[in-house]
Amino acid sequence: MNSQLGKWTTAIAAMGAGLWITAALAGPGEDFYNGKTVTYVVATKPGGGYDTNGRLVAQYMQKYLPGSTFVVQNMPGAGHLIGANYIYNSEPDGLTLGTFNTGLIYSQIKGDPAIKFDLTKMSWIGKVASDPRVVVVSTESGIKSFEDLMALKEPIKFASAGAGSASTIETTLLVDSLKMPVRIITGYNGGDDQLAIMRGEVQGIVGSRSSFQQFVDEGHARFIAQVGGSETDVPQLSTFVTTDAGRKAVALVASQAQLSRFTAGPPGIEEDRLTALRNAYASATTDPEFLAKAKELGLPIDPAVGDGVQKAVVEALDQTPETVDFLKKALTDE
After folding, report:
1. 116 with 213: CB under 8 angstroms?
2. 224 with 149: CB under 8 angstroms?
3. Per-residue pLDDT reduced to its tens digit, 1-59
4. pTM for the full predicted model
5. Could you count the other beta carbons within 10 Å of the beta carbon of residue 224?
6. Are 120 and 184 in the same domain?
């Protein structure tokens, strides 16, 4: 598992080199988008981190494809599966792209029959962030540390999104492998999970740090453990792990935390159009106004573009039989 995690880390690091190449003059790809409407699919409902991020990316990609109009279309359902299936099976004309949940990497690894795509074949445009995962608990729960959580005599409820989402898969992996006293309640999408915590329907969640930072800053919840990332204000979950199953689960989740907020299109987009999209994405995600807005919204920014992203996705999907079996067993009752 450690060697596999090393492969993913190397692939992610390689993304940063030689990828920020933008066209000095408009080529045929850029010219194609003049007067065209691009549908940017967000595979969840309005509200929440994915939607906020997707709308910001679409806004600034439009800026760098002169004459284009980007229209955001929310397409929620089945843990982002409906939106991802739609993107993959769209016409490869460069006019449909979008963003979806990292958890679909897990779904493809375990062979989810509802998948109508192959992530290795998609036209990868970029990823905007790396986003550590956090264990979040309500301030009303009285839980102040991961040790407090593990000492509970009765399970508490954690929210998650739909089956197949990164939220549900990662929560299931961690809860089962670490024997956390948690009952998972699925079906909370967009900002519903935060509302559920505030209403007392659930007491916690495993999610991305960027999606919950403001919620924590406002005093509604606290972070008690983190997976990945360089922040030192929250203990790493790996420090609490004592079993091989737990170590495997944490390593797998950590690898996915490095890939966040994808943008991709269907397979087969013509090279000049794909290059134009990647150039626009590179310019968008380094635009000073984009970066300022992302900071204001609490969105993490660690972007990469093009083939480096595709390589990282392929590496993430290239699992040993041991890891595939572990994932399938952990999610048998999902």
Report:
1. no
2. yes
3. 444 445 544 554 445 444 444 434 457 889 999 999 999 999 999 988 889 999 999 99
4. 0.70
5. 23
6. no
Amino acid at the residue 175: V
Question: Per residue in 66-105, pLDDT tens?
Answer: 999 999 999 999 889 999 999 999 999 999 999 998 778 8
Give the residue from 99, 130, 123 showing the smallest Cα distance to 263: 99
Three-class SS state of 150: helix
CA atoms of 144 and 221, how far apart (whole Å): 10
Strand arrangement, sheet containing 182-185:
182-185, 156-159, 204-208, 133-138, 221-227
Q: Domain limits at 140?
A: 133-255
Which two structure tokens, joined as six digits, stand for 6? 């090393």
CATH number for the domain that contains residue 209: 3.40.190.10
CA angle 197, 198, 199 (to 5 degrees): 90
Number of domains in the chain: 2
Give pLDDT, residue 333.
52
